[in-house]
Every structure is written in C-alpha cells, then in structure tokens.
Amino acid sequence: MSKFAWWDKWIEKKKKYAKCDSIFADEDVFNAKAVGTGLPPIYQKSTFNFQSAEDGKLRFLGKSKSGERPYARIYTRLGNPTTEYLEKVIFQLECQHIIDNALDADEKEPTIGVLITSSGMGAISTALMALLDSGDELICGTVYGCTDSLLRHWEKKYGIKTHFIDTTDTELVKKTLEENPKIKGVYVETPENPTLKVNDIRALADLTEKYEIPLIVDNTFCSPYIQQPFRLGADIVIHSTTKYINGHSTSVGGALLGPWEFMLNYAFGFYKDLGVTPSPFDSWLNAQNVQDLSVRVKQQCINAFEIAKFLEKHELVSKVIYPFLESHPHYERAKKQMRMGGAMISFELKGGYDAAVKLMNYFARHDTPMELAVSLGSVISYIQHPASMTHSEVPKEEKERMGITEELIRISVGLEGSRILIEALDEGIKLAHK
Ligand SMILES: *Cc1c(COP(=O)(O)O)cnc(C)c1O
C-alpha cells in the first residue's frame, strides 16, 4: 500500500504519458506554447459575480466550466483569470508531451495540475505541507537557503525530520531510504544551489518509484527550456518564476506542478488557506516575459559557457564549476538531462575570503557590469558570495559538507555580451589580488 491515496492512479499515468526517452521538447513547439495566442487583460479584481445561485454552488464544489479550472472565478485567492492563463502556459512548457500523449490515448481525466504562487517559497511550502505530516521524514539535497531553513524550522516545530544528504550520490539516497521507512519524499534541485552538482533525475525517480514516494524537483535553475523533469520521471516540479521565467527581476513568483489528484485534493487546500496567491499584475508580467524565455536562456547559456571557459584558464581562479565543462564531476549526467549547461557558474578564487570580498566590492561599483546581488535568471548578471549571503543561515558544518567554501562565488550570467563580462571579471579578479 502506498503512503499516498493519489499514488496508484498517478503511477499508471506517469508511465503511460509523462516518462519518456526524449529529454526535451521540440524547440518550435516550446516557443509556440511560450508565445501563446494573446495575453489576457489584467483582471484586477478580488471577487467574481456568479451567474446564478446554482453557478455559485457548483463553483464552490470545484466544478469546472467550459475550459476553466476547478474553483475558477470565485475569489482571487482561489484563482484569477490572468493567473489561470499563466498556469496554462507554464503547464504547457513543462508538460506539452503529457497533454499530447493523453489526448492520443483519449484520456478523459487531467494528468497534471498546476498552481501559480506568489513566490517560489510559496510553491515549495504548499507542496511540502500537502505532502508531509508531523512525524514524517524527507530526504533533501543541497538546496536554496530558504528551503533549507524552512525544513530546519519544521523539524523543530512539527517534528518533520529532514535527512540533508548528498543526493547526487544515488547509492547514499538508496541506503538512506532503506534505513528510514518514514521517509515520504526526496526533494532536490539540479543543478544544486550553489555548488552546481547535478542530481541524476532518472536514477532518483527509479528509486523513489520503488518506495512509492514522490521525487520533487525544483527546476528553477534550468527553467523548462533546459530541463523537463517529468520526462525523466519526477513526480512534482517546482519553479521560482522570479528567476528565468520572469527573467527581468521585476516580480517574485512561483509555480507548482504535480499529479492531478495530489494538486486538487491536497495542494490546492494549502494554496488557498495559506494564501500564497499571486497578484494578477505579476501573473500578467510573467505571462509576457515567458514569451521569450528560450531566446533569453539560450543566449545566457552561450555567454555562461564562454565565461566558464575563461575562468577555467585564469591563473587566479582555483576551481570552476559549470555542468557542461568536461572537468565537471557530473558532466556526462548533465549532458543526459539538460539541453544546455545553464547560465549559473560557481568558482573559487585564490586568496580565500578576503579576495572574494574584494571582488564583490568591485562589482558593487556603478561603473562595472553585473550587480552585486542575490537572485538569478535575469537579463542582468548578478554576482554573490554564498557563504556570507544566500547560504549564511546554513550551519557551518553543513556548509562544509555541501562544499560551500569561504571562497566560493556564484554568478548568474545575463545578456550583457560575454566579452564585456569577461573583461570585467578579469579586472575585478586582478584588483582583488592587489
Ligand atoms: C529563488 C529560489 C527559490 C525561492 O523562490 P522565491 O521566488 O524567491 O520565493 C527556490 N528555489 C530556488 C532554486 C531558487 O533559486
């Protein structure tokens, strides 16, 4: 017996429609879905009038009407037409192959559900609250600083224990699952933040499927253009749309996609009760920005690869981590599940903490390209120092285990030309060593 009421139905559909050999969407199909057929207006409304008493009753029962999703047009915390448009687009970008396969099989029921949230953390907390009860356990890889701290708070407050382990070591995940029968899910990001280690989604999915527990993948670092975890066997996919999907650092938002019954009967309840609903304006903005996702991300990846190659040759740089560099320990694995290498680079500067701080201050200047800022995925490049910034809350010994050293620096590469960025990095690194 599975630990989840929705499991058996999902696994049947996952095998039929979701998991497949091809690792990513056809580029033209992807672009057509991203562009869509016209943005909706911004429904700047909190409540929607019903057509009749019967209409109101049916909406509260979660009945959908002429293409609307369940619970549409009641009250914006439960759903808003502008946000529902974005839901549809993100759903198509991650799941078009599932839609096509299900249609071919004349499937009547939806396979995957999607919710847009007011932040990436909103999507993460909704998913994990819907999944875990007190006393349950979770496996978690090296993840976003707030995901990490959320789980540490839950352990103290609700007795939900998280096994923070190196999930890129599939054997270790297997052993941890064998030894801990209360584990109800495996949660990963790939590439991991900020160490850019690559989790083997297919291998982890095979493993979690045996244990009848979901594999949850935070796909923020890749965006659906580079990586589509459902194809590889993931059960739940999360995005912080704040990053590549928005792409311009103009709003904070998230997306949660998962098995239909899980979404409808478990996640939706927390979504509406926690109140992680986005504003219609932010949904509209993201629906517009996602239209050119692939063009942006492709060029960001090209720029990042150039910069990674430059840094790898630099005499003042001791280590460069970029998934599509042959020196990356998971190069083969990355090639098997990612369309391109991504636009995130981590590297270690010789000279330790002091040199890292000097480099940060170089990029804090207004006459240098790149901003000294956290976040990622923007057309503007960002540079930051995880040990003192994004991952400062992670306990010291955990940071060491994860490989977040004092000299580790993370860059999110944007759309400034790579030559400009390389020249600035070279100047900044040299100044940091003066
Ligand atoms: C930013 C980020 C989050 C959190 O998203 P917010 O939109 O800031 O709430 C989660 N996961 C990853 C990988 C992120 O980069």
From TrEMBL:
Entry superkingdom: Bacteria
Pfam families per record: Cys_Met_Meta_PP (PF01053)
Species of origin: Thermotomaculum hydrothermale
Gene3D superfamilies linked: Aspartate Aminotransferase, domain 1 (3.90.1150.10), Type I PLP-dependent aspartate aminotransferase-like (Major domain) (3.40.640.10)
The enzyme's E.C. designation: 4.4.1.11
Keyword hit for S-adenosyl-L-methionine: no
GO annotations of cellular component type: cytoplasm
CDD domains from the UniProt entry: CGS_like (cd00614)
Signal peptide: none
PANTHER family tied to this protein: CYSTATHIONINE GAMMA-LYASE (PTHR11808:SF80), TRANS-SULFURATION ENZYME FAMILY MEMBER (PTHR11808)
Residues recorded with modification N6-(pyridoxal phosphate)lysine: K243
Protein's UniProt name: Methionine-gamma-lyase
An annotated GO BP: transsulfuration
Family to which this protein belongs: Belongs to the trans-sulfuration enzymes family.
Cofactor(s) annotated in UniProt: pyridoxal 5'-phosphate
